[in-house]
Specification:
This protein is mainly α. It is built from 3 helices and 3 strands, in the order βββααα. The chain has one domain. The chain has a 3-stranded antiparallel beta sheet with strand order 1-2-3, with helices on one face. β2 and β3 form a beta hairpin. α1 runs antiparallel to α2 and α2 runs antiparallel to α3. This is LOW QUALITY PROTEIN: dynein beta chain, ciliary-like.
Length: 150
């Protein structure tokens, strides 16, 4: 998204938005809603995955949780940078006469907090997973040593 020199114009990958609406307002509105909905779905799926308990020798669960941790790591920077431009786009759309639904306003307010909670849960899951990974690595090394001896 590129803010033009005019305070009420914005250039997006859809085109230029002007006060009073226009053909690009709907596309931008849908893009805003899509970004928020997609992030909310990511938070729900990742949160559910990180809340699952992993036990010793439960490799499938360990790999699944590691996948969620990797997804969090990959997504962290983009998620942090996402909210400010989305809030700017919502404000611009409102200034162009587009009314924001309660869902979008709620998502813009709630998702940053949900993302922070998810980050804390990811750190907790990582600390729980680390000793299990270490014990599995030690077991594999012992098995490899036994194979080398025989």
């Amino acid at each position: 998204m590129f803010l033009s020199s005019h305070p009420r114009l914005i250039v997006t990958h859809y085109g230029t938005l002007r006060p009073g609406g226009g053909k690009f307002s709907l596309s931008s509105y849908l893009s805003l809603f899509g970004n928020l909905t997609e992030l909310e779905e990511f938070i729900k799926v990742t949160d559910a995955g990180l809340q699952r308990e992993v036990t010793k020798r439960d490799y499938c669960m360990m790999v699944a949780i590691m996948g969620h941790l990797l997804a969090m790591k990959e997504r962290q920077t983009t998620a942090d940078k996402l909210f400010e431009p989305l809030k700017e786009m919502a404000a611009l759309l409102e200034s162009c006469g587009q009314k924001m639904t309660g869902d979008i306003c709620a998502q813009l307010e709630e998702l940053p907090e949900k993302l922070n909670i998810l980050r804390k849960r990811a750190v907790s899951a990582k600390y729980k997973l680390t000793p299990l990974q270490a014990s599995d690595v030690a077991l594999i090394r012992r098995k490899c040593t036994l194979l080398d001896v025989h």
